[in-house]
Specification:
By secondary structure, the chain is an alpha+beta fold. It has a single domain, classed as Immunoglobulin-like (Sandwich), CATH 2.60.40. 20% of the residues lie in helices and 38% in strands. It contains 2 helices and 9 strands. Strands 8-7-4-5-6-3-2-1-9 form a 9-stranded mixed sheet. Strand 2 and strand 3 form a beta hairpin. The longest helix is centred in the N-terminal third of the chain and has 23 residues. The radius of gyration is 20 Å and the shape is globular. The relative contact order is 0.24.
Length: 154
C-alpha cells in the first residue's frame, strides 16, 4: 500500500512539473532589446550615430516601443516590416517624445500577418534623418522563440 501511495505522489509531482513547464513556455508579453546602427541599413550608412530600442509585443498583438538615439538628428522613426537585408513599409509610426527619444502611440497593434512577421524576426526599427531619408540607423527586431525578454545586436 505504501509503495502505491509513493507511486501516486511521484506521478502527481511529475504531472505538476509538466503543467508548470507548459505554462512557462506559453505566450505573454515579450520585450526585445534592439541596437540600431548605420551598418544595419540597406544599403549601409556610414554614421557615428547609434541607438537602442525596446519593443514589447503582447499576445493580443498590441505593440509598444521606444528608441533612444545618440548623435542622430532624427526627423522620423518607425517600425518597418522586412527581413534583415531588405527594406519594407512602415507598419507602426513613432512620435518624438523627448530629446533623442521616440515612442509608439498607445494602442498600436500589429495585424495577424505583421505579428507572424514579428515572430519570424522580419520587423525592424529605423530612424530617418535629413541626410539619410531612407534611414540613418536601423536594428532588426529578433524576438526569442520562448517568450520573455531577448536582445538583438548586443
Amino acid at each position: 500500500m505504501k509503495s502505491k501511495q509513493t507511486f501516486l505522489n511521484r506521478t502527481s509531482l511529475w504531472i505538476a512539473a509538466l503543467v508548470l513547464a507548459g505554462c512557462a513556455s506559453m505566450g505573454g508579453p515579450q520585450s526585445t532589446q534592439v541596437r540600431l546602427s548605420g551598418n544595419e541599413e540597406v544599403p549601409p550608412v556610414q554614421t557615428a550615430g547609434s541607438g537602442t530600442g525596446t519593443v514589447t509585443v503582447n499576445d493580443d498583438r498590441s505593440v509598444s516601443g521606444t528608441i533612444r538615439t545618440q548623435g542622430v538628428p532624427g526627423v522620423a522613426a518607425h517600425i518597418h516590416e522586412a527581413a534583415a537585408g531588405q527594406n519594407g513599409p512602415v507598419i507602426v509610426p513613432m512620435k518624438k517624445t523627448g530629446e533623442n527619444e521616440w515612442s509608439t502611440d498607445p494602442g498600436a497593434k500589429l495585424t495577424e500577418s505583421q505579428y507572424e512577421s514579428y515572430k519570424a524576426g522580419r520587423l525592424y526599427l529605423n530612424v530617418h534623418t535629413p541626410q539619410n531619408k531612407g534611414g540613418e540607423i536601423r536594428g532588426q527586431i529578433r524576438p526569442s522563440s520562448s517568450g520573455g525578454s531577448t536582445s538583438s545586436g548586443y
